[in-house]
Write a structure and sequence with these properties.
Radius of gyration: 21 Å
Helix content: 55-70%
Order of helices and strands: HEEHHHEEHHHHHHHHHH
Shape: globular
Strand order of the largest sheet: 1-2
Structural class: mainly alpha
Amino acid sequence: MIDNNVLITSFFAFAGALAISFATTPVVKIFAKKVGAIDVPRDARRMHKTPIPRLGGLAIFFGFLISVLLFGRLESQMKSILLGAVLIVLLGVADDIRPLKPLTKLAGQILAALIPACSGVVVERLMNPFGEGRYFELGMLALPLTVIWIVGVTNAVNMIDGLDGLAVGVSAIASITVFTIAVLVSEGYIAVVTAALAGACIGFMPYNMNPAKIFMGDTGAMFLGYILATISIQGLFKFYVGISFAAPFIILGLPIFDTSFAIVRRLAKGQSPMHADRGHVHHRLIDMGFDQKQSVAILYMLSALLGLAAVLLATSGEMKIIILAVAILASALIGLSVTGHEQKKEKSRRQPETTETGEEQEGQDETKH
């Protein structure tokens, strides 16, 4: 049965976070300019044409933190999550002002993940998909696997932050999904926290949608990934073990899929998994001819479908929903591959007919992220 008190508290947490995030973003924008946290479009991966301030994630963080402090329940494990979030945000701010080395960022992410993990925010068991009612007790593997999960999701959300409004919108959808499940299974504590996270994301979105006035930067992307990873442990892996094997992976299916595909792609080319490239799913949509708004809308729709699958998983048969989620991702991959192949063939047919000047080449580069 749905608790009305939880819904009311969640509404205030959502509204408060939204208002704070929306109100502080212009202040953060001024601060970003003063400290030189500016994203300059230097390469083909960047989609914007003019320098744009970063650090917008600070507004999301402030909205979330203040709302949780006002309306949330500050147990010891929640305090550890917030402490790790502060470290992640500080790491992101430093990286947005002056890019850090990949190993330095990774070390900071691991340290931030260890704070909640050592305080009991761990994945203790996983459902055995081949035996109904049976679970794998992780034992000594609980801590390292939890750290891998938190760091992995933190970077996964960071990697999809390539189009205006994409990462923050996908994170908002994931937050709303976890909120819905938390309400359905009477986890009021998680419902309030995810409502605050959704509100903080939505409050920032008017400034971040195409054409973006400010980017959330690594500050926001890593923070959102970290919070989604830790809250999924508290709300799905721990308290609702029956769906623990699949639900978090379905909810975060888009960033997890994109990051996994990127790692495989880079290793196949003999590159480091940390090597930046232009092969992410949002880049492929742009190369197919979709503009930024269309690409973001498509990925929002995919995230919403995955979220719906996760909600259904909480209330109906597991295997059917797992198959549905796999089918959605497989269809998206096949569609991207086929359409991308057709786009390349079309470009190759038209290439001999055009003479590319230096000015034309410069104009093409400016349309790439």
